[in-house]
Amino acid sequence: MAVISKTPNTPDGYPAAYINRSASVDLKNIYTEWGTYRTWIPEGGVEVAVEWTDESHTAIRATAKTRFPEAHSRASYRVSYILVADGLKNARWKQHNSFSGRTDLKAQMPGELGDIFINGSDYVEGLIFNDVAISVTDYDGEIGSVPAEISAGEEYTHVHIFELAGISEAVLSAPEKLRVVAVLTDGNKFINCNSSAWMNGEPFASDMSGINGISTDANAVEVARYTLDGRRIAAPVPGVNIIRYSDGTVRKVMVVNQ
User: Fold this and answer.
1) DSSP state of 128
2) What b/e sequence results for 225-251 when a residue is b if at least 16 CB atoms lie within 10 Å of its CB, and e otherwise?
3) pTM value?
């Protein structure tokens, strides 16, 4: 399954992906290349929560909250929303397979996933599809979702409603596994993103934080500390902390509750 008419990039084979609308990667390289991109420090943070608009379950309300560790003037940040379905399966669905017979890739594609595609035919059947985008707002972001004048640490809220009318029953077969991904963008590239919980309230388990160390000068001292969503804090708090040092470097660390 693929819908590419609205995306800024067109994959030339499946499975394939683009990182941040720029770097094209395929299955054999995605783990190493994604690791490189995870070291990038985001300019702002975004959170998103979802709820049914009423008891009829015909629409989903997504509420995004953004924060920035630094002030910005005449900023062009926006939030876009993706309604995502997990756990989908259908006997009629097939995955086009560009890796069929590529035994030369076994070393780069170990394990069950590699076996399924390398040993499979041109189309693989019986898969369970996760991360399926079933409705998307403007890829450049919703106008007015983030103000042009931004104060450091201030929280900004925006709401979008997804109407489910017209979406196929096959896609809505597991409504409890619907969720929304909010994407913070500056119009050209993605700044940050986050997923809501599933509609049944169960947290979506995914490491989106991109925690990696960055070396600093031995004499550098901490001058500011923020949470991942941009709130300035006076002391470490459990979770991801963003630390700015006197030599200008920034690093993300995971603080564990002892």
Assistant:
1) P
2) bbbbbbbeeeeeeeebbbbbbeeeeeb
3) 0.66
